[in-house]
Write a structure and sequence with these properties.
mainly alpha, 16 helices, globular, 342 residues
Length: 342
């Protein structure tokens, strides 16, 4: 799941949000001013125009996420893990791309589900799908790479969740993963865990506490998106200006399996924030990266995100962790191949 909030108080969240990305942007622009002053204006113009173009997506994404958090819509995700296993896998894959969880909520949520007996197959479907897409990521991807790519990524997220869920179901049927958890889960951070079985409050503005949460989410998430996208577009401007197109095209350009597999293998260790990746991939595609390789890179990188892998490693045994990574890289390559064919 994309990281929009952190386990910090509002004041600490704002301070933490203002530090690194802005400092990096300033440092990069200062370096360009010193080393290539003639190109400084173009770098700023490129990054500013791109950020302005994405602004409407940022605003809508922040409003949507704040609304979902303020209403408590995440309680709907818990319902995906009730009923028959096949139904659970399908619902978990779909809700994985919709749940507005912060990173601290995902760990106790998944741990609680496993501890309460939810099948590993459904949990794996959720776990594979959730880092790939959520409403803000969908909109940011559409703004940077276009709606066809964004929709294809959403489809890939659900498909990867289904692929992983049914693969685990088959393996469990053969006797594997009888006891997936390392140990019983501890209580979650920030008071979160498996959501209580209550309906979301869609008219959140009637309750002062929920209005306050909406404001807090709007400010923190808006700042988060703006700061990371500013950095992303500055980096994209550098990529377009200074990285030879022939180099990109030679490594991950052209047709065939090799560029897609290479992009997936590079994407896993070279994970980029879900909001930084689309603008940079747009620059890489302009330089010659194939569409299939870009999809494989993005899918592999999301599955291997530090929060996602840390959550898996902290909760489950090594066999489950290895299977998670294997399913992720296989799904990334298949996503790239299918997207390239389309």
């Amino acid at each position: 799941m994309a990281e929009l909030t952190q386990n910090l108080r509002p004041g600490e969240m704002l301070k933490a949000g203002l530090k690194t990305p802005w400092a990096l942007c300033v440092a990069i622009l200062l370096a360009v001013a010193v080393l290539d002053p003639g190109n400084l204006a173009e770098v700023i113009r490129f990054a500013g125009a791109a950020l302005l173009h994405t602004g409407r997506y940022i605003l809508f994404a922040v409003l949507l996420l704040s609304y979902l958090k303020a209403t408590g819509a995440e309680v709907m995700v818990a319902r995906a893990f009730e009923g028959r296993e096949v139904r659970m896998i399908f619902l978990a894959a779909v809700f994985g791309g919709l749940a507005p969880f912060c990173s601290c909520e995902v760990i106790p949520f998944i741990a609680g589900l496993l501890a309460l007996g939810a099948p590993l197959s459904a949990v794996m479907a959720f776990w594979l799908a959730s880092p790939l897409i959520d409403p803000p990521t969908l909109l940011i991807t559409a703004g940077a790479l276009g709606w066809p790519f964004a929709i294809a990524k959403a489809v890939a997220a659900v498909a990867l969740g289904l692929f992983g869920g049914f693969a685990i179901k088959a393996l469990r049927g053969a006797g594997a993963f009888a006891s997936p958890l390392k140990q019983a889960p501890a209580s979650g951070c920030c008071g979160c865990g498996v959501p209580k079985a209550e309906a979301p409050v869609w008219a959140f503005w009637r309750e002062p506490a929920r209005r306050s949460q909406f404001r807090q989410e709007f400010v923190s998430n808006g700042l988060f998106l703006v700061k990371w996208l500013t950095l992303a577009y500055v980096l994209e401007a550098l990529l377009v200006s200074y990285v030879p197109a022939d180099l990109i095209a030679g490594v991950v350009g052209g047709e065939g399996l090799l560029p897609i597999a290479t992009a997936a293998l590079v994407g896993m260790p070279a994970y980029l924030n879900s909001y930084v990746a689309p603008p940079l991939l747009a620059g890489l595609m302009e330089q010659g990266m194939s569409a299939g390789a870009a999809m494989a890179f993005m899918v592999a990188g999301a599955v291997s995100s530090i929060p996602a892998m840390a959550a898996v490693w902290s909760l489950v045994k090594p066999q489950v962790f290895a299977t998670y990574l294997a399913l992720g890289i296989t799904g990334a390559i298949l996503s790239g191949i299918l997207f390239q064919m389309v």
